[in-house]
Amino acid sequence: MSKSSHKILIIDDDPTLITILSDFLEMEGYQPIPANEGETGLKLLEENQDVSAIILDWVLPSITGIQLLKKIKQKEAYLDIPVIMQTGKKDKESVIEGIEAGAFYYMTKPYSLKVLITILKKAIFDYENLRLVKESLQVNKCSITDFLKKGEIELKAPGEALRVASFFTQYTDYDKASIGLSELLLNAIEHGNLGIGYDMKEELIMDDRFDEEIRNRLNAPENIDKTVKVIFEKTSDSIKISISDRGSGFDYNNFLRLDPDTIFNVHGRGVAMAKLIFENRLEFSGNGNTVEIILPLREQEVKKNDKP
């Protein structure tokens, strides 16, 4: 999909900032849709359900940005649309509240437009992949999955993570399961198998070299045979998923909560987001290169298992 087809909804009550963002996004090849308050933004969203991302200000007349974010995320049609929140507020509790409510990212004013584009590209890329995978699963759902009780999957590249995560999502009604699983799978591939550390990833993303580095490392002789192993087993009412990489592990306890000191970085929230989604259903073991998730089966899956 070309940039020119990406609609970006901007909801902000500052006319100067709306003009700056709209002009900048147009220069970058996007289609900005401006709204100066929340209800107008919701109406425009209903009229343009093909928007690729939303830039949402925290402080708005009549309804706050966080209230609007929660309203957006309550609707199934908008659930996966990435929302980038922006504000002049610096308190980190508000940042965490926004991310926990479903914001893809949180930017404090003033911010670099280069950083905004970096975040926007990542948000749209993830959103499009998630949408395509969900559509593919809906169309091509195979009845053979009804008979699968346990199995093993191996994957190598980041592009495979969302497809594998969405495969498991069809079994459960757990909210945002595909997002949480894909974050854990990406961590296993990028950090575990390919050895890309926190600071290195930050630098690569800011220099727009991250995808290139991933390709180079995937093709490196020492990584060519490395895979992330996913073992799953269904019981009568749940599915247990174990994800293991071939890395040296990491101190996962430092990443299970959103860290106020790094919350404004362009990455590093994946494991914490997965923990927020799965809560006590997620557990790391060993040196951190194995994580297990137990998800409840959706009601119709349980009924299938109850049949004689």
TrEMBL record:
Modified residues (4-aspartylphosphate): D57
Keywords noted in UniProt: DNA-binding, Phosphoprotein
MF annotations from Gene Ontology: DNA binding
Positions of the Response regulatory domain: 7-124
PANTHER family: RESPONSE REGULATORY DOMAIN-CONTAINING PROTEIN, STRESS RESPONSE REGULATOR PROTEIN 1
One GO term of the biological process aspect: phosphorelay signal transduction system
Xref: Pfam families: Response_reg
Protein name from the UniProt record: DNA-binding response OmpR family regulator
Lineage, broadest ranks: Bacteria, Pseudomonadati, Spirochaetota, Spirochaetia, Spirochaetales
InterPro entries linked to this entry: Bact_response_regulator (IPR050595), CheY-like_superfamily (IPR011006), HATPase_C_sf (IPR036890), Sig_transdc_resp-reg_receiver (IPR001789)
Protein origin, superkingdom: Bacteria
